[in-house]
Amino acid sequence: MRLTFTLNGEVVSLDRIAEDLPLLDLLRDTLGLTGTKRGCETGTCGLCSVLVDDALTRACRTPVTKIAGHTVTTIEGMLGPNGELGDLQSAFLEYGAVQCGFCTPAMVLAGEALLRRTLTPSREEIRRAINGILCRCTGYQQIVDAIEATAQHRRDQQKATSGGEGQW
Amino acid sequence: MVSNLRYVGNPALQNVDGADKVSGRARYVCDMVVPGMLVAKVLRSPLPHARIARLDTAPALAVPGVKAVITHADFVDDGNFGWPVKDAYVLAVNKVRHVGEPVAAVAAETEAAAMAGLNAIIVEYEPLPVIGTVDQAMAPEAPLIPEVSPTGKGNLCNSHILRNGDPAPLLTEAPVRFEATYEMPHQEHAYMETEGALAIPEPDGSVTLYANNQSPHINRDIAAQVLGLPTNLVRVIQPPIGGAFGGKDEILYQTSAQAAKLATLAGRPVKLILSRSESMAASYKRQAMRSHIVLGAETDGTLRAAKIDLTVDNGAYASGTPLASWRATMHAAGGYRYAAVHVDMQSVYTNNGYSGAFRGFGNTQASAAVELAIDELAERLGQDPLEYRLRNCLREGDATMTGDLLNQAVGLADCLEWVRDRSEWTKKRADCTAQPEDGLTRRGIGVACYFHGSGLGGEGEDFATATLKIEEDSSITLTSGLTDFGQGSRTVFTLLAAETLGVDIDRIRVLRPDTQTALDSGPTVASRASIVGGNAVRVTSEKVALLLDLAAADHLRCDPQQLIRDGEGYVGPDETPVPFETVVDHAREMGLQLSAQGRWQIRPIEWDFETGTGEPYFCYVFGAQVAEVEVSRRTGRTRVLKIWAAHDAGKILFPKGALGQMYGGIAQGLGFALMENFRFKDGVPQTLSFTQYRLPRATDVPEIEGTYIQTAGAIGPYGAKNLAEPVMIGTAPAIANAFAQATGIRVRGFPLPRVKGWIRRQSKPCPPVLANL
C-alpha cells in the first residue's frame, strides 16, 4: 500500500508498505528512527509508545493502516527546531528522571500526552498516565517529579502570555 | 558547614549522558546497523534436562539466506568458560540442563531466513530426570546435573561456613529461642533492554564486539579464549546499556561469543538481539534461598546467638552463585550484635534455569529472612519492632555477626531513628493496632534494617584503573574500565576528575569503556564503581594536577605551595589569575606529558574459607526502611502507601543519582515482596513474559521519602561509601512486616499471599504462619 501520514511535523509518503506492518517496525527498521524502543513481544512494556495525534499509542500494536492520514510524534519530534531539548526533556534531566534511558523516550511522550490534556495533573494522575510504561531503574518518583514540574512551568508560561496580553 | 567542593555533593549536577538518552539519540546495541550486517538467532532447549542424542546443523546451511551456523564444536575447548566454577558453555555440549539453554546459532540475511535456518536444524533430545527442588537435588540417588561435581559431592555446587564463637550452648541456655524457616523465590532482573551483541570481523582477523555487557574486559578475555584468538585481536566496545542490575555478565559472554564466531565464519557483521521471552528463559536469576534460622535472646530481648542454615538453588550452572552465596553467608544474621554466630550454606544444582548476580548479591534474600525472623521474635517478646532493632543493632566499636570489629562510623541507629521519626512510627503503629478488627481494609506499618559489606571483600582482588589525557585544545578525555549501565558512574567519574583537577565539568568527557582505550578494572559489580573506580579516577587526576601545579608555579615564578585557584585559573603571589589553557600550554613547553594512568586497590582482606573466619570486608554500609501498607479484605490485595528510607553511604557524590538509585532499588524490593516470583514447575519456567511476570508499575510504587545519612571517614573518594545494591534490601521485609501488623499473618517467604476475606486473629504467643502461598 501507499502510506501517507505526518511524522514529527513533516508529511511522509511511502510506497509498497505492507498493511500489517507494525508502526514500530516502520519507525525503527524502515525509517531508522531508533529512539522508539522495543521491550517485549506482548504489548505490556509500553517502551514503544508514541503519540498518534494526541493519544499515547503502543507502536508495536498499531498496524500502519491505522496511522494513514494521522499525525505521529516520536521522541525525535520532541526536540526543538535546532535540535535543542524541549521543556519536558530538560525537566527529566533536571529532576534526575533518566538512568539507563531505555524507557525514557516513552516516558517523555506519556508525559507530553498528559500535559496536552491538562496542566494541573495531581501526582496520582501523573502516575496513572505513565502506568502503561515499565521502568526498572528509577522507581518512577523522579519521572513524576519531572512531569509535575513541567506542568507548573507550562502553567507559568500560559499565565505570563495571558498576563502580557492584558498589559497590552 | 560550608563546603569548598564545587561538584562533589552538588544537588544541581545532572547525568552526563542524560541528554543523549532523553533526546532518543543514544544508540544502544539493538539500534545499531552496519553495512552487510546479518541477523543471528539461537536455537534453545525446550527441555529442562535432556541428552542431545542428535544434532545436525547441515540442513540449516541449505536454507536460502543462511550464511553460518555454529555448535559447541566451533569453539576452543567446546566453549567452556566460567569463574570461579568453570562449568558453563557458549553452546550446550552433549546435554541441556535448563530450558532456554543455547544449543546452536544461525546467522542469515534476514530474521525470517535465520528462523527458517533454526527450524531446519535437526535436534533430538532424550529427556533425563528433572530436578526441580533442592531436596531432590541432594537426594542420594539424584542424577548428576553438572558434567563433573565441583565439590565431589553430587549436585552440591559449593558450600560456605561462618564460625564466630560457639552458639550451641548459648542457644540451649537462652531463655527465649526462636526458630523458623523462610523461602525466598527467584527474581528476574527484567532490565528493559534485552541482551545483545554486534560482532564485526575486521580485515586483519580481529573481531570488534559491541555488547551490552557489565564487564567488557572479562567479555574480551572469554571471547578470545573460546575463539582461539590472542587477546589483542578481540576488542569489546560498550554502547549505552539499558539496565543491568547484576544480570549482564555470563549471559553476555555466551551471546557475544556466539555473535563473534558467526561473524568470523560468515566474514560479515552479525547482530544478535534476544527477544523478551528468550531473555527471560535464557538469562540467570536471583537465587532462590531457604534460610533456617535459630535465634537466642535474653528475656529483655538482647540477642545472644544465631545458628543459620542456608540452602541455595543455583540452577543448572554456577555463574555468580559461589560468590553471592558467600555474601549471603556473611550477612545471614543481619546487622545485629551477637556473642556467637554459625552459618552453614549449601548451594545446589537443579534444572531451574540458572542463577547468578542480582542487586544485593545474596544479601537481599538472606537479610529478608532474618528481618522477618527478628520481627517475629520482637513480637513474641512483646516489644516494639523498631525499638527492638535499636536495642540490638550494630554501633561503632561493636563486632559484626562475623566478629569483624567496626572501627568506622556506623550510621545504622541514625537510620533507624530517622525513619522512625519521619514516619511518625509510634503514633502510626498505635493507630494501626487500634483499627477495628473487621474493617474492609486494615493498615499496618513495618520496619527492616540491614548492613552490607562494601566492595568485593573476600570475593577477589578489588582494584580499578583510569586514564586521563589533556588534549591539544585543553579539553580532557577520561576513561575507566568500569561501565555505566544507567547507575550514573560516568557522571561520578566526571565530577571526581573535575573536582580533583579544579576545572569546569564541561571540559571533561568520559568515554564508554572500550578494551582498546580503557584499562582492565575488574568486573562492574558489587556497587564498587564509585569507591574503587572513583578512587582510581581521583588518583589519576591527582597525578595530572601535580604536573599542572609545577607548570603553573614555573610560569608564575613561585613555589607550587604558594598557588591558589580562582575558578579554573591559577593565582600566584602577584594575584593575577592565569587561565587554565595558559598553564597547559606552558606545561607542554616544559616538555611535561599531560596524560596519566592510575590504579587504586583496596587493601587485601584475609578470609579463611576453610575455617569460616577472618575479615570479610574492609568497611560496611547500613540502612533502615519503614513501609506503610493497606490490605483489602475483599480482594486480599496489599497496597504500599508510603516508604521511608535512610541509608548510610558516607559522603554523597552525585545527589540526584544517589536518590534515583534509592528509589529504583526500593521499587525492585517492592516487586520482590508483592508480585515478582520467577516460578519453575518441574524445571519449566512459568513466567516468560511481562504479562506472566508482573513488574511494579508507577501506581504500584508509592511516594518515597528517602535520605542519606552522611557519616564521615570512609575511604571512598571524598569519603564516599557504596549504595546501589543495599538500598533495595530493606524494602521487601519492611513491607512483609507491615503486612503482618495489618493482617496478623506472618509470612515466611515472598511474594505476600493474597488472602481474600482473611480474619485477623489475636493469637498469642506465636501468630499464625502461612508459608509462601
Major sheet strand order of chain B? 3-7-1-14-11-12-13
Topology as H/E string of chain A? Answer: EEHEEEHHHH
Strand order of the largest sheet of chain A: 2-1-5-3-4
CATH architecture of the largest domain in chain A: Orthogonal Bundle
Number of domains of chain A: 2
CATH class of the largest domain in chain A: Mainly Alpha
Alpha carbon gap, first and last residue of chain A: 52 Å
Query: How many beta-strand segments of chain B?
Result: 33
The fold-level CATH name of the largest domain in chain B is Aldehyde Oxidoreductase, domain 4
Mean pLDDT of chain B: 95
Helix content of chain B: 25-40%
What is the number of helices of chain A?
Answer: 5
Q: What would the CATH topology of the largest domain in chain A be? A: DNA polymerase, domain 1
The tally of beta strands of chain A, per DSSP, is 5
Describe the protein in words.
- The complex is a heterodimer of chains A (168) and B (773).
- Chain A contains 5 helices and 5 strands, in the order ββαβββαααα.
- In chain A, 38% of the residues lie in helices and 12% in strands.
- Chain A starts with a strand and ends with a helix.
- With 168 residues, chain A is α+β, with helices and mostly antiparallel strands.
- The radius of gyration of chain A is 17 Å and the shape is globular.
- With 773 residues, chain B is an alpha+beta fold.
- Chain B has 3 domains: 32-128 and 195-273, Aldehyde Oxidoreductase, domain 3, CATH 3.90.1170; 288-457 and 610-770, Aldehyde Oxidoreductase, domain 4 (2-Layer Sandwich), CATH 3.30.365.10; 463-601, Aldehyde Oxidoreductase, domain 4.
- In chain B, 27% of the residues lie in helices and 25% in strands.
- Chain B has 18 helices and 33 strands.
- In chain B, strands 3-7-1-14-11-12-13 form a 7-stranded mixed β-sheet, sandwiched between helices.
- In chain B, a hairpin with a 2-residue loop joins strand 22 (564-566) and strand 23 (569-571).
- In chain B, helix 9 (321-331) packs parallel to helix 10 (363-380), helix 14 (489-501) runs parallel beside helix 15 (529-556) and helix 15 (529-556) packs across helix 16.
- Chain B starts with 17 loop residues before the first helix and ends with a strand.
- The model of chain B is unreliable at 762-773 (pLDDT under 50).
- Classes of the chains: A alpha+beta (168), B alpha+beta (773).
- Chains A and B meet through helix 2, helix 3, helix 4 and helix 5 of A and helix 1 and helix 17 of B.
